[in-house]
Structure prediction request, 730 residues.
Amino acid sequence: MKIVRPTLVLNKTVCQQNIELMVEKAKRHHLRFRPHFKTHQSLEIGHWFRNLGVKHITVSSVSMAAFFAKDGWNDITIAMPFNIHETEGLNELLTDNNINIIVDNTLTIEHLKEKLTGEIGLFIKISTGYNRSGISSISHNRIDSILEAAEKNKKISFKGFITHSGHTYSAGSRNEVQNIQFDTLQKMDQLKKTYLKRYPNLEISIGDTPSCSITENFRGVDEIRPGNFVFYDLVQHSIGACNIDDIAVRMHCPVVSKQPARNEIIVYGGAIHFSKDWLQNIDGKPLYGRIIITHNNERILLGPLSCLISLSQEHGILKVTSKEFKQINMGDIVEIIPVHSCLTAQSMGKYLTTKGEEIEMMKCY
Amino acid sequence: MKIVRPTLVLNKTVCQQNIELMVEKAKRHHLRFRPHFKTHQSLEIGHWFRNLGVKHITVSSVSMAAFFAKDGWNDITIAMPFNIHETEGLNELLTDNNINIIVDNTLTIEHLKEKLTGEIGLFIKISTGYNRSGISSISHNRIDSILEAAEKNKKISFKGFITHSGHTYSAGSRNEVQNIQFDTLQKMDQLKKTYLKRYPNLEISIGDTPSCSITENFRGVDEIRPGNFVFYDLVQHSIGACNIDDIAVRMHCPVVSKQPARNEIIVYGGAIHFSKDWLQNIDGKPLYGRIIITHNNERILLGPLSCLISLSQEHGILKVTSKEFKQINMGDIVEIIPVHSCLTAQSMGKYLTTKGEEIEMMKCY
Prediction:
């Protein structure tokens, strides 16, 4: 494998193992597995899921739904509050596919009333504490007005309640994730009990990678939609959702400058390659990636304080110890474990597997 | 102009005015203008420079050099410490173009000795305080060893010293930028004096947008290489390098959810569109973008505390006042001024001009 410039390298074995483990976990808990494909955005990686029997997927845009629908995925949830400007694109999908949209207001339903040309499934978005989009689980008035508006339209079938406990991403421990998950399940279960009489087939769909990786409690849940687990990353590792060895992607970056006065190594690999998410390191400073070097033919994961400390547009700065500084040479290719694999994959737009295969991604906006 | 999904809208008039002003400033100070094209990465925008007589450009990678060389730009500086793995790509460029590379170590020169098939210009990278790549201006030993290595190779002509005062990007005021620029010029001038006898044609090249926009002091400088000024952004505005009206790009984002309990508006437009740079707002919290709404057919720039406060992969959260909350409706398209236009442009990969023309960008990695 010849690396010339910043390259996102994917370990296929690790990735397929991550997929397998989540497929098995879903089976064990009798859950429908509807993985979020926004992390990888690749037809090839989609096939790895399909080979394990996965038939339902989640995406984050109408264009991403169209991309995967063309490849034979025909049961898709578009997990963004529906953007009414994309109704035409949605309609095009409805002829051949089962599409679910998510909504947290009546105006979207009113808009669709006149414009929808086919049948859709509707999930109402519930916020259980992440506080991005969605309705509080106790706001029955808002939920009822959406249901009322939906019932007037025969093309819309109410499927259930969907949530994304994104606040697990800032959890400090596995215990905290379990507490958030417990709270989410309480709220969703209460909703289910309230609405089950009127809608006996209603489902509960939850989604975040930390909860799906860490907990074994899925009481009342019908479907899970994690996405990031396919690669994992340093954020997931910091939460306790994965081990370092479970992280399937690494950026390979050439060393282009050495700064002996500061024990800093400059690599070709910047914000346009990694994007710019960071974690707080154990010394309180920002950490943009962990480093693996090859020394005497041995791959060595450096400690967390020897890390990618800064990203400008194309440059990355690695701060290392003086011993490590001597072990890294001009022209070396260092491996960097990304903080947030979804954004790094999106920035790079393609993968090179450790077996040397090139895998293309969709660019979906 | 119909906006359906997150779209990067470019005001051509403002952009061309930014270019014109910098062209004039360079002329006024008798400087060669070698704009950095990594900000826009577009052939079309390149032509706007060419139409004003610009003939020399700066890029940040061998592939970007190749992209612009094909369009007739044949005097190019590749302003990254040269990555020895791309020597083949460099050689391909040398047949028809004048290419300058930048170097801060002898190993790169040693490597090129055997591999170079054509002639190149060499700039030695000096660090005047930004502390990324480069050599301190007083490290004459390191500079001399590079010069010595270069002189052994007839294909390499030493052109001069190059620096990028990137520390102006975190300056708190125009005065601070002027102080940094003054310090940079002192250091570069000292170098020039030291080496001018040996190299009577040596040049000094400086580059950052804040210095080039704010100062009128270019003593001893032969060439300027700013890039960001073509669009400007909130970082430049916070430094005092531009007015809000000089910022030529805005992200247009559809409103997909309203959260009345928190006066928050959720837009379709996230980290994959903006990238993830932020500024510290006047209340100490992160600011990811400023908001312009259209109310009663009037465009209103909201105050800095009503801003884009958070970005996840596709979602952005706007925090506004309760009055503004009522003025923004589901389905509205809000305009957001980006914090860092280079990264936002890179993430989006294309522009729509306010006149409705589509402009493609290169994707260069």
